[in-house]
Design a protein that fits this description.
222 residues, alpha+beta, six-stranded antiparallel β-barrel, 6 helices, 27% helix, globular, Helicase HerA barrel domain-containing protein, HerA_barrel_dom
């Protein structure tokens, strides 16, 4: 029997609020995507995409980069099995399937922003950016939001966060760094000067590991 996953009413939810923290630690957090209103699977956030959550105690806006995502049965004992049906056929013949699966993702924390306001308003106030692990991560059951392009552009004025990404554990780190740079490059409207500076920063960080540097630069190819 499935226990209902607590959610806000759609009318009260910020348009970028799509997940909720279900496990948290100093350097990363695990979040579960909220269920869509229709018969469909929650949209899995892309590898290397940016998310943010407010730590309500400190009022810090914590930024993370998605490095792992899964869709699996809520019942951990029984695995999903192949049914040979299209999504439309699933909706017609097996609509309960959509209520039996969950989508979760892990985000590596890369920094935080000191701010005086949350994300409930349409235009959040910008604060001071710190590109290191915050004093505390977002707590259990706090909302997770997709980052707007403007937020990521503002955060990525400095490139110190690349050093944090290169130290993420249990992740395809080289691919993660490349995906993150590609994502920011697109959000910055293909700013070539920023891309060159990012490449230089990685070159300095990996000056003693040419093979890793070459593989990362090869994967960026915007």
């Amino acid at each position: 029997m499935r226990l209902p996953f607590p959610q806000f009413e759609i009318t009260n939810r910020h348009h970028n609020h799509f997940a909720e923290v279900i496990e948290t630690s100093t350097s990363e957090f695990l979040a579960q995507c909220l269920e869509p209103e229709d018969l469909s699977f929650p949209v899995m956030p892309p590898f290397g995409s940016w998310v943010t959550a407010i730590d309500e105690e400190s009022n810090n806006r914590v930024y993370g980069v998605v490095y792992h995502a899964t869709t699996s049965p809520i019942d951990s004992v029984h695995r999903a099995r192949a049914l040979g049906l299209s999504l439309e056929e699933l909706r017609e013949q097996q609509p309960q399937i959509f209520a039996m699966l969950k989508t979760e993702f892990k985000a590596a924390i890369v920094g935080f922003e000191k701010t005086s306001g949350g994300l409930n308003g349409s235009t959040p106030q910008r604060g001071q950016i710190y590109q290191y692990i915050p004093p505390r991560p977002p707590q259990i059951h706090q909302a997770v939001y997709r980052c707007e392009s403007e937020e990521v552009v503002y955060f990525s004025e400095s490139l110190d966060f690349l050093a944090t990404l290169l130290q993420v554990i249990n992740a395809p780190v080289d691919s993660l760094v490349a995906a993150t740079i590609r994502e920011i490059y697109q959000m910055r409207n293909c700013d070539r000067s920023w891309l060159i500076e990012a490449g230089r920063s990685i070159s300095v960080l990996l000056k003693d590991d040419y093979d890793r540097l070459r593989m990362i630069l090869k994967q960026i190819h915007p």
